[in-house]
User: What shape does this take?
Amino acid sequence: MSHYPIFADLNRRPVLLVGAGHVAERKAESLIQAGAQVRVAAAALSPRFETWRQQNRIEWLGISFQTAFLDGVFLVIAATDDAALNRSVFEAAEARGIFCNTVDTLDLCSFIVPAVIDRSPIKIAVSSGGTAPVLARYWRQAIETLVPLHTGTMAEIAGEWRSRVKKAVRTMPERRRFWENLFASRFSTFVAQGNRAAAEAELSARLANLDTPRGEVVLVGAGPGDAGLLTIHALQAIQAADVVLYDALVSDEILAMVRKDADKISVGKRAGAHHVQQEATNRLLVQYAQEGKRVVRLKGGDPFVFGRGGEEAQVLAEAGIPYRIVPGITAALGATAYAGIPLTHRDCAQSALFITGHSRHDGSEPDWRTLALSHQTLVVYMGTLKAADIAAKLIEYGRSADTPVAVVSNGTLAHQSVQTGRLKDLPHMAAHAPRPALMVIGEVVALREELRWFADSEPALEMAQIHAA
Ligand code: SAH
Assistant: This one.
């Protein structure tokens, strides 16, 4: 048997509720919310029912179930702890062709009540057909986190504009596209921010300029690799995209979550051609947006941390293309957390510095004196090729050669590997590290011994070599 899903309009319709205990209260609550006239058949009322009775929200029939109570009702819910009574309610309802739900007894139900995600006027119902209510509730919770709270307001605004849109956008497919584009655009960000005026202005501008495509770009941080570290905004953006331009650093697991019919374009950097690649990427972003596409620029980690997100946003701002930024978990946060290395700790590190191992364009030197201070954690991005230089300079400017260091490769991914050692070993460790790799320098690294929780690998052979060196 498979149930036929419906949403019933119970407003001002009589519904009989048999029972007035704890379970019946939950049923009464949702019936009252739906505007039903709730008639309660029970010999006595719980205090909560008594309050409802005083507020005229329910009608108390004064005694337990009688067949005559079924007269004129649309639905009946049997919610007593008396199995025989529940059965007779069901049988009487069946005889009269009235829908009946018996709490927790599937074979005494002609209808069942789903688990509901309520973003009124949007409602999402989940049911297991009575076979596994706990599983249905599990999915309700999972969906609950995915459906933004402001979805209801979006539906409300759409409802108010519906007839105007219908007049302006003639065909069904065009209208569908109009709404899809709108809901995936910054319209939804404005609604989420409670800025209804800006949201309606966006809608109105789109309606007034139907022939001018209104694309936009979302710069999305994909995090360090583990797909579970995507934010909900990131997931929603990649599932709404027409085009996704992604870096080499974005994991396959995350790419698999991109909307199936989106164009996926790799703009991965090739060593030596950074500049050219970046210009080409900038051009593509602008071009796709000008064609009216929903473009996602998907970047490893966070777009604004050594990710050139700032430059790309500048290009978009100059071209007058609407854009949004979705931050991501940067490698320094993800990789250290999964390696069991706290970036700060009251006992040994009061600050953390994120630096790049890449040399500066103008060839000038970083402030080694500051970088070599103790009681701070240094995290080096893109640094493995420069590890020897970096270690030598830090030691030269006063950091102890015995400072604990780690090189975390493929941080947060199933194949994460971590090497630990001393600052003087860093060049060897970096040379052996699979990429991408992050170098972490500071006393906090020693805490990994105690705090290691993620099942990563520690290349034993290489460690032995390092210690022998
Ligand atoms: N925007 C990114 C950084 C891009 S720079 C972010 O916020 O994380 C690229 C460098 O990031 C790599 O050279 C490496 O040092 C580091 N990195 C990125 N992902 C990593 C990972 N999963 N594990 C270790 N290091 C990583």
User: Anything to note?
Assistant: Residues 460-464 have pLDDT under 50 and may be disordered. The radius of gyration is 31 Å. The pocket of S-adenosyl-L-homocysteine is lined by residues 224-225, 249, 299-302, 305-307, 330-331, 335, 381-382, 408, 410-412, 436-438 (CB under 6 Å). The longest helix spans residues 151-168.
